[in-house]
Amino acid sequence: MTSLSSQPHIQPTWWRDERILKILLQVAFVIAVLVVFGILTQNLTSSLRRLGITFGFRFLGNSANFGITEGIPYDPSESYLKAFVVGVVNTLWLSSISIVLATVMGMILGVARLSSNWLARQLATVITEIFRNVPVLLIVIFWYQGVILTLPAVRNSYSIGGFFFISQRGINLPSLDPSGWLIPTVVILAGAAWGIRKLLLARRPDVGPIQRNSLIGLGVLLLAVACWILFPEPPLRVDVPVLDRFNFRGGTQLSAEFTAMLLGLVTYTGCYIAEVVRGSFLAVQRGQWEASRAIGLTELSTFQLVIVPQALRIMIPSLNTQYLTLIKNSSLAIAVGFSDLFNISSTIINQSGRSVEMFAIIMATYLAINLVVSYGMNWINARVKLVER
Amino acid sequence: MASSVSTSLAEENRLPPQEKLSPVAWVRRNLFDSWFSTLLTLVSGLVLVWALSLFWNWAFTQANWAVIPANLKIFASGTYPQSQLWRVWVVLGIVLATLGVAAGAWGGVLLQYMIGLGACMGLAALLPLGEQSQGWLAGCAGVTFAAIAISRGRASWRLASILVWALVLPICLELLLGTLTPNLPGVRAEQLSGLLLTLMLAAAALIIAFPIGVLLALGRANHALPVVRIFCTLLIELIRGVPLTTILFAAWLLVPFFLGGITVNLIIRAEVAFILFTAVYVAEDVRGGLQAVSRGQVEAARAVGLNPFQITALVILPQALRASVPALVNEFLTLFKDTSLVFIIGMIDLLQAGRVVFTNPNWLGTQKEVLFFIGVIYFIFCFAMAYAAKQVEKALGLGKR
């Protein structure tokens, strides 16, 4: 009879020892990566030397010498860096407006696909299926060359109520011009809202939340009207565009390129968001509806108080992905000539020949934007997350 | 026979009774349930009528549909030389034969599609498209049906029908571009365009990106080798963080710097960009699948004495891939649509071929017709793939709780 302890401990030979193999494998991997990386760097430096370029970011200070029609004020004599910043601002502006509108559209379509109304459901299904199954580039080009460029010229713009004008050159819409009186007005209105709420809570605690909010709203509205009348200058003036002989005066203009990109990104991403919304609502267990019905909640309050909070929680990670995709898709602006960061960078590359440096900058910028958006979405996610005990 | 009838009856008895509604009651229930529902019906109805009348008015009074048949060749194969067009047809025949064999061996939705495709081509052969095209179309339909007939029910050919693509792809590329014999002229890669280019880019990228993506996912999930994990994670996050446009641009402008004097065809560089881009997204989808495999599976596999390689290949991967089928199909749809971005590096895919057509002075003002037609082609491909994926998901029993 041999006892277990008397058996010698079997030491595997070193080439079969898992721990040593792991280390060897990783060392080999690192060496392979370093060798490939080294060859590539070597090739890069020799290619650059042949072209007579030294790697560096000095060229960003050179004068750009090309015009940009869109975005923050910029003069062609300013530096490449400034031109790039204009592009970044345009990308951010386009993406943020698109994200807001796409979310609204996605919510409406997604909920419509779950509606008990047959017609609305089918209509929403057809719209989502159409836009989800064609390339986003096709949609953008369709909006640009198929729709916007075939609209009437500026002189015969379509007008919506005399406020919005739609033409070949894009959309003209009223702008809001703030004056020095805006900040005092906002302070007064916010103070009034807070005061009325405090007063109502103290004097009339029997008033329900809906009535209370309408009373506050009424008070603020009256005060706002008073501000607009009493102040020597209106705090916020609405500047409606007026058609002159050749172009619009006043208001702001969304250029044809911007409008096409906006429409393309919103319709494409909106339909993807609709699917996210639909999936999230379907993922909320049916029992939740039944339970809320059992405790006597109405259909609307069930939706508001029980279903939406749970669906929101499921929705946010997928929404994050959709937003990031939208931001990346905004680089398609080059197809219609909207001056986003990618379009301007490609012009800079063409002019200066600095492709390697510009690439590093483009990648870093996109990564930074993505990181910020992800961080924001994760923050929201943490806020709505189920607190488990 | 009798038992199957009785089980189906029993199945039926277990389901809740279906309510039979009269049409009027159905309309009231589904369209005019409440004041809100009525409002919704009216608004949707108005939108529908408005859109349909707009479309009808355009399609039958304003649109110049002659642009489509006149430019079919450009949409299909772009600038590919007319005299060498037979090569495209031969490649189509080879692909259809391979797909037909797979369809016969696997059956299911693929078989339905291939029969449908063969029938469509048989019907198209009867259209007045010119004697040559008609002959080729009839030939392709014949090849498809022959391949299906030969392989029908041969389950042992299933694996081979997938592996054979590794051989078919290079043969097709060589046939399309290469100089096979001295008296066959080579075709420049830039002449590969239109729908042909779109399909080639998408098919090759998917077939090659899939195994790379799986490897990246395994690398990222590998906790035993931290160096490999960090490398894979970095690669995935870096490429996922930038737009495909940027990566294509890099393949065009940047890659030559790194090759040290070797020239690589632009089409290959674009393909590599697509492969890299797709692989990292595939990797993320597979990672999701890997996370869905329960730890008990690994422990059980270790308990029966499998080594790490066997555990991965035989236990984890099959389950992970099965769980990631829906996400993978989405990835392929995205890839198919994203091939339209090659316009950035000056290649002419289906969409770009359309832009070439409607900027042609002879066909000015036909952008809506052309874009509509191209949209329909993309839609058919994507919708067919999405439908097939749904059938496969059902067959795999995914999503059932």
TrEMBL record, chain A:
Belongs to the binding-protein-dependent transport system permease family. HisMQ subfamily. Residues 88-377 form the ABC transmembrane type-1 domain. Pfam families: BPD_transp_1. It is found in: Cell membrane. InterPro entries: AA_ABC_transptr_permease_3TM, ArtM/GltK/GlnP/TcyL/YhdX-like, MetI-like, MetI-like_sf. The chain crosses the membrane at residues 20-40, 92-112, 133-154, 181-201, 213-231, 251-273, 294-312, 356-377. SUPFAM superfamilies: MetI-like. It comes from the Bacteria. It is a multi-pass membrane protein. The keyword Transmembrane applies. This is ABC transporter permease subunit. Its main location: membrane. Keywords: Amino-acid transport, Cell membrane, Membrane, Transmembrane, Transmembrane helix, Transport.
UniProtKB/TrEMBL annotation, chain B:
Keywords: Cell membrane, Membrane, Transmembrane, Transmembrane helix, Transport. Belongs to the binding-protein-dependent transport system permease family. CDD domains: TM_PBP2. It comes from Thermostichus vulcanus str. 'Rupite'. It is found in: Cell membrane. This is Amino acid ABC transporter permease. Pfam families: BPD_transp_1. Residues 195-389 form the ABC transmembrane type-1 domain. It is a multi-pass membrane protein. Its main location: membrane. The chain crosses the membrane at residues 35-56, 85-103, 133-150, 162-180, 192-218, 230-254, 370-389.
